[in-house]
Amino acid sequence: MSIGNYNIPVGLLTDGKIFVSMESLEFIEWLQGELNKREWSQAKFSKKSKISQSQITRILNGTRGIGPDTCKKIARALNLPEDDVFRQAGLLTSKPDDPPDLSEWIHLYRVAEVQDREYLLDIARALARRSKK
Length: 133
Fold this sequence. Notes:
Oligomer: single chain
Strand order of the largest sheet: 1-2
Helix content: 55-70%
Strand content: 5-15%
CATH class of the largest domain: Mainly Alpha
Radius of gyration: 19 Å
CATH architecture of the largest domain: Orthogonal Bundle
Largest sheet: 2 strands, antiparallel
Order of helices and strands: EEEEHHHHHHH
Shape: elongated
Distance between the termini: 57 Å
CATH topology of the largest domain: 434 Repressor (Amino-terminal Domain)
């Protein structure tokens, strides 16, 4: 089934009605937006992500789903937290009380140099003490 420029996988409900996964469409739009922001072609993204260009094409046109391994490769290539990509792909849900930028904080901590991690913690501790006053 085509919606705009997307060929979206469809399924049948038990009563014969067709359904389209909105998560699939939202992920495709999100991923295409990330590539556009970086001005990356599919070929460039393929090299950076180590995902074949044909697989990227199938993901973007909606004929191939996405699993955990592909999400990890996409996250590394885009330098984004894995949790964010998993959520975009519909493979992980947010905890209701988690702030929306928590996964970015975790990602930034993980990619920081060891000495910078301690500095980040010192700043966070100081801010937490200040907000408790």
